[in-house]
Amino acid sequence: MTTTTKRITIDPITRLEGHGKIEIFLNEDGNVANTYFQIPELRGFERFCVGRPVEEMALLTSRICGVCPEAHHMAAAKAADAVYHVDPPRTAKLLRELLYMAFYCTDHTTHFYALGGPDFIVGPDAPVAERNILGVIHKVGPETGGKVIQMRKFGHNVIEMIGGRKVHPATSIPGGMTKILSEDERKQIEEMGRWAIDFALFSLQAFKDIVLANKAYLDLIVGDVYTHRTYYMGLVDEKNKVNFYNGLVRVVDPDGKEFVKYTASDYAKHIAEHVEPWTYLKFPYLKNVGWKGFVDGKDSGVYMTTPLSRLNVSDGMATPKAQAAYEEFYATLGGKPVHQRLAIHWARLIELLYAAEHWVELATDPEITSPNVHTVPTEKPTEGVGIVEAPRGTLTHHYTTDEKGLLTKVNLIVGTTNNYAPIQMSTQKAASSLIKGGKVSAGLLNMIEMAFRAYDPCFGCATHSIPGEMPLEVLIRDADGEVVDVLKQFVD
Amino acid sequence: MTAKPKFAMYWAASCGGCEIAVLNTNEKILDVDANFEVVFWPVAMDAKYEDVRAMEDGSILLTLFNGGMRNNENEEMAHLLRRKSKILVAFGSCATEGCIPGLANLSPLSEMVDTAFTTISTDNPDNIRPQTTFEVPEGTLTIPILNPVLKTLAQVVDVDYYMPGCPPESTQIAAVIDLVIQVVQGKAQLPPKGSVIGAGNSTVCDECPRARNVKVISAFRRIQDVAPLDPNLCILEQGVPCNGPATRSGCNSRCPRVGAQCIGCYGPAEGVLDYGARLVTAFASVVDSDEPKEIERILEGIPDPTGQFYRFNLADSMLRAGKSAWQKKG
Amino acid sequence: MTEKFEPVIVGFTCNWCSYRAADAAGTARMKYAPNVRLIRLMCSGRLDPSFVIKAFATGADGVMISGCHPGDCHYISQNYKALRRYLLLRRTLAGFGIEPGRVKLVWASAAEGLKLTEEINAFVEEVRALGPLNWPKWDGAAEVFESELAPHIATEVPA
Questions:
Q1: The total number of structural domains that make up chain A
Q2: Are A415 and A387 in contact, with CB atoms under 8 Å apart?
Q3: A351 with A219, same domain?
Q4: Deepest in the core among A159, A257, B140, B299, taking most CB within 10 A?
Q5: Minimal Cα–Cα distance from B2 to chain C, Å?
Q6: What is the pLDDT of residues C12-57, one digit of tens each?
Q7: Would you call B20 an interface residue with chain A, using a CB distance cutoff of 8 Å?
């Protein structure tokens, strides 16, 4: 360390997978030498699930994340089906997917209105006291708070009707489901779904009126600070349309050209995870491109998942209103693929609309109330992979079992994990672009937050009417480690 | 204007489900906002550790603490929030009994780390493991030190109340919020210290609508082999292992209601010393044989008894961990 | 010269048969290993699995359960309960790394002092061969984990 090197520690970061930490090192000129985004947690699911019966994985792995337990539940259910080589009845798959669409609506809603939204709806330079859900409500109207609560309530009601519980669903087993949907439940679900479509349209309109109509925000979105040209990944159906529940994994290169399309069981041929000793989380990358470090470009194996990625890899949305929104998205931003990370917030709302439309499609399918919800597995359990799109990205569960169906090996690549290298890069770029000559200001803090908040990192939700924002404290130390300045950002 | 009493919620090694469960009280959360000053809730607002350290000891009236003690940062926060809070509630299964991540206690910590860093998709030719202190060219980076076994909140600090569930039911959370507001307004009394709150005094079986008869099990079954179950008959009676008999009530038996066995997320029923031991008794009592070989054949139907009986409770059981987790090597 | 490991065994005996067998052995001056600490229950069916777990958790290396022969239970059929619990408990404890050989179920009638003596002596040797269990007491758990185990994660990066 030179005598003029400074160090900025941001700890803890909140609205993230539990805990996260950013270390920014400055060189002699006061510019950023390097940035490290560290993840300090490890709970060991891949080890302690070994020895457990595979049918429990849909219940055990949901405890990886109580914000998106539905995603793990589905990936685990599909992996367990694959282990038993059993194909559930169509109704069982419809029910799982319907639960999943309702979940997507709650999850994307929470992120947009309470986490990502404030930066746009009230603006990145808005007073700290307004950069939260309350400020959002002031801006778009007092009804909005009630609508957000209603959307979350409806979504969780559907999850409970099909999954038995609002958090950590209980009804998926190898071969199908444990519960049949009644006609009465179906009617309620359909009605809530139609309301959800209106809510999604309302949210997209709010985004247009408040964000897109404002040149300063638009400049922020299309600007270079938050832009990275990387590969993109997402699930697509047989028509290459976005699908959260089933399909093939499609990867496109930074020019938008298809790079590879693979089935779940082939994932390990295409994904590898890079290790750094300063963090408990690994960095997935495309094996066949190779790990070149935290860099952009076609020669770098770094790839991103997220709603933006799913739109980038697809040929469109499978429902009409969402498709129209998709077309408008790319027309506005100048074609595919879109590399601007802040556009993820917009893509997220397009997915909200698709999820709501598909919710109604599934709720009105004639077979959704059929009593045929389970097929008893007849083959011996061996090995299987289940992949779904979690809201944050492609979620892979890979199980190997013994002949009794007890797990012998577990490999999980979780949604946000895919984005760890992109998050590291986005944070590094934001810090380097914004910190010059050692000058650190209050505005800097929020701009760095925005870099990773766009990815909706795993725990990035669960907030509501309390005034709040990123708790950030920047400690500026001199070469002796003495704190010479402290910048804080929070409401007093 | 009298100051509103202070409220905090914190997550240690948790999944976030407890936070979601609090949100799922829907409009009730506005009552929290109206009656309390939220001073620390990392998922929701921006106060930081420095702010908590600067608070007067005991100045936070109520802290809901979820998540287990997996590393030294979790423990430091437990000690810090204990000092600063009048009432500390172990909130949710992780804090009260360790929950599912407590199953990591069945193997050595090194295996947990080794497994994560040598999966088939992991590219780690130098066999690197995370370093709690690591020198980069620019300086020193640190990450928390993992505990050899996962611990519960009460194994680290003094706890005032326990609220079980994975997660606690939102209706129960709403009821507890109401109670605390009443207490603050002088209209109600807090229960005795050490009580379990937001849950019942009986077992899940008591809340279960299924018909129960004397059980004679000649075979334990895996649920996928017999689904869908008869919706009106006890699940255990149909041969599928259900932990209802030893699990605390309060959830309204929601999993059995949808055809899934109770996996025990509400923790031990009142008066149970060791949750797994109680389940061993319950399950042994329904086995329909007096002959050792036949009993063993029937018990083969429960392929993972340790996981079945201690799924959520391992870290708080009498044994707390498997031998390999604590035994010195060599 | 290392001291021979003396296992600590807790023996749950039923009042009507096996406890009387132990008594008879004592009266007849049959020598059985002093490692066993006897706890008398009215019936082997009174055995709660938590007794066995507590024994291990608080320092026992082995646990013996003895009762009346099947069909001879003073309370008709409660020894079968002990049998079922014992078999399921052994499987459960195996998941904790407690070897099945550390728990033993023995039937002995009041007249079988010799048999009980032989079973106890054999069990002590079996547990001796397994070695001490020394389950941690967990209070002051920091002492359980010596510096080689914690802080965990090696501090060297392989070159």
A1: 2
A2: no
A3: yes
A4: A159
A5: 43
A6: 999 999 889 998 998 998 888 999 999 999 999 999 999 999 999 9
A7: yes
Name chain B contacts of A83, Cβ cutoff 8 Å.
none
**From the CA of B281, how many Å to the nearest CA of chain C?**
6
Distance CA C109, CA C120 (A): 14
Q: Count Cα atoms within 13 angstroms, Cβ side, for B103.
A: 26
Yes or no, beta carbons of B258 and A171 under 8 Å apart: yes
Same domain, A166 and A34: no
ipTM: 0.95
User: Where do we find the tokens 């500026």?
Assistant: A476
Residue A163 and residue B258: Cβ atoms within 8 Å?
yes
Average pLDDT over residues A61-72: 93
Structure confidence at residue A473 (pLDDT): 55
Which candidate from B22, B49, B257 shows the least CB-CB separation from A12? B49
Kindly list the domain boundaries of chain C, sorted by start residue. Answer: 9-144
Residue A448's pLDDT band, with cuts at 50, 70 and 90, is: confident
Residues A356-402 pLDDT 10s: 999 999 999 999 999 999 999 999 999 999 999 999 999 999 999 99
Q: Which amino acid is at B153?
A: L
Pick from C57, C85, C144: CB nearest B318: C57
Closest to B18 in 3D by CA, of B64, B83, B76, B69: B64
Q: Decide if B322 and C95 are in contact by the 8 Å CB cutoff.
A: yes
Q: For the residues B220-241, what does the mean pLDDT come to?
A: 95
Three-class DSSP category at B94: helix
Find the domain containing A220 and state its range: 87-225+340-375
Indicate if A149 and A213 belong to the same structural domain. Answer: yes
pLDDT of C148 higher than 50: no
Number of B to C CB contacts under 8 A, please give it.
Answer: 135
A166 to B170: CB separation less than 8 angstroms, yes or no? yes
Contact A189, A95 (CB under 8 A): no
Q: Residues B227-245: what's their mean pLDDT?
A: 95
Give me the pLDDT at residue A89, please. 98
> Residues of A numbered 87-146 whose beta carbons fall under 8 angstroms of chain B's beta carbons: which are they?
110, 132
Interchain pair B119, A46: CB under 8 A = yes
Residues A456 and A356 in one domain: no
A155 and A32 belong to one structural domain: no
pLDDT-based confidence at B153, cuts 50/70/90?
very high
**Minimum distance, in Å, between the CA of residue B45 and any CA atom of chain A:** 4
Query: What is the CATH topology of the domain spanning C9-144?
Result: Rossmann fold (3.40.50)
For chain B, domains (ranges, CATH) are 6-101+149-184 (3.40.50.700), 109-147 (no CATH), 204-316 (no CATH)
In this prediction, residue A484 carries a pLDDT of 64
Phi, psi of B192 (to 5 degrees): -60, 145
A383 touches chain B (CB under 8 A): no
* Confidence band for B51, pLDDT divided at 50, 70 and 90: confident
Contact A46 B257 (CB under 8 A): no
Question: Same structural domain for residues A221 and A351?
Answer: yes
Residues of C in contact with B318 (CB under 8 A): 50, 53-54, 57
Is-contact B64 B85, C-beta < 8 A?
A: no
Distance set, CA A94 to CA A70, A86, B56, C91 (Å) = 15, 16, 54, 40
Tokens of A158: 């559907």
Span A161-189, pLDDT tens digits = 999 999 999 999 999 999 999 999 999 99
| A286 three-state secondary structure | strand
- Touching chains, C (3+ CB pairs < 8 A): B
Element (H, E) at A285: strand A283-286
With an 8 Å Cβ cutoff, are C152 and B306 in contact?
no
Residues A142 and A11 in one domain: no
